[in-house]
Amino acid sequence: MMQLFAALALGALASAGDGAADLVVRDGRVWTADPEQPDAEWVAIMDGRVHSLGMGEPPAHLIDEDTVVLEARGRSVLPGLIDAHVHLAGAAEGFALLDVRGAASREALLELVARRAAATDAGDWIVGRGWSAESWPDPRAPRADELQAAAGERPVVLVRMDGHSLIASSRALELAGIDAEGPADPAGGKIGRLADGQPDGALYESAMGLVDAPSAADTVEGRRALMRQALAQANAWGLTQVGAIDSRATIEQELVPLDSAGELTLRVRATVRDAGPTLSAWSRALAWLDRPRTLSPNVELLGFKGFMDGSLGSHTAWMLADFDDAPGNVGFPLALAETGELKTLIDLAADRGLQPAVHAIGDRANRTILDWYEAIPVERRADLRPRVEHAQHLAPEDVGRFAELGVVASMQPYHKADDGRYAQTRIGPVRCATSYAFRDLVDSGATLAFGSDWPVVSADPLLGLAAAVEAGTLDGKTFVPEQSLTLDEALTAYTRGAAFALHSEGWSGALIPGYVGDLVLVDRDLFASEESLAEARVVATVVGGRVVFARD
């Protein structure tokens, strides 16, 4: 390990001599994700790609004085982990926002706001993210006036952890022109109101856009600086490739320039989001996407992100029947889904060879998007690999349709640890039986691609693995353990499955000679440890044979 840290201090790997590898990991429990050779004890990387691997000791000629050697000492070595669903811009912005994830009650949340207010100039905004009231002793979110009292003269916006609703202070609502007189609920959104018509501070889905809070960084260089922090954090979690669902501006102004400067330490497969609430706006976005898909060596365009509905936590998931705890409410489809224009957009994108990745949480949202995908001609559908993002709550008769239609179930297992605290209250035990249906989907032959939805939750894949395998929830209970996977199956969803979803299989997602030299060293043998997978930590992350993260 001393040689590893010496190489890091120099800032780059030294070139290997003839026949020697750039990097060798030895004495490991190597899980390769290759069914033909599932296990190994050493891996050699040369010229950025896996050169060879095997059991026992690596051949002596692979190691010379310039080779970086990682001593695994019986610990797990994995292919570079792939997160099929992140929002890099949001993750980067999170480093500058008020983090309220730790608030265990309404009072604790208001105290965090008051502390930030004490360090914020009067009139300046306080913007935060991450609250969730479901586990609070009293699960009522703060009203607008309560937020304002905590913040003094400062406008406040706090986005819920799922990103599908927010709470705004009285001053923030005033600046947005929201009062008892209006405006009316926008298409695909809702303004929370008290009995007298006054806004209570809650804004749902598209209504969130009515409040124009300032961004965390107002310059391109400021945003790039935050993005560097996000990249470093992703590498520390063992991520080597991501499906980045981000705006055109983020892709063009941050990711591509960072890659050109040699600072992009992830392989990015980009999906464009947030083009606008109208079909005409998306048509312009499709025109932008109609270009060579390789934007830089490590940034590739895949397609577009659409939305069917909202979230379970915000009661905006589109369900086939009422929420158990909100009679008369079945959620709702979002703007383009409600008008059916999203189907038109999917067809337009399919004609251009662009992969659709559509958010669907509720069982009705999932059924509808599967119906729309089924209308795509079979051969074109096979080429596109359409994705359902989240696929959280499925009607039993729809589970098998993913495999039948060749639709990728792009799911985020750590969401299960959160939603599992309150899902039975929301939709009852019968519908929960096919919530987060990992087991049923795998058994039916569907492709399962795992990710996180970062920054909605942590992108640490070890937390995701724990949720998928152990079924634990954030409050120490379990949720639908019958849908759990084996560790091998869950790792496959973070490697080969995610690579398939991102059209990067055949060169990534496994440790196979000729594949990219991306790998992760963990601090224990994951297959032998009796502790929770959530207790494990990444020791080193390698991208293309270069160590991009090493734990002291």
From TrEMBL:
GO MF annotations, alphabetized: hydrolase activity, acting on carbon-nitrogen (but not peptide) bonds
Enzyme type, top EC level: hydrolase
Signal peptide (residue range): 1-20
EC numbers for this chain: 3.5.1.91
Keyword Signal (UniProt): yes
Domain Amidohydrolase: 70-549
Keywords noted in UniProt: Hydrolase, Signal
Entry-linked Gene3D superfamilies: 3.10.310.70, Metal-dependent hydrolases, Urease, subunit C, domain 1
PANTHER family per record: IMIDAZOLONEPROPIONASE, PROTEIN LONG AFTER FAR-RED 3
Name of the molecule in the record: N-substituted formamide deformylase
Organism listed in the record: Engelhardtia mirabilis
Name of the gene encoding the protein in the UniProt record: nfdA
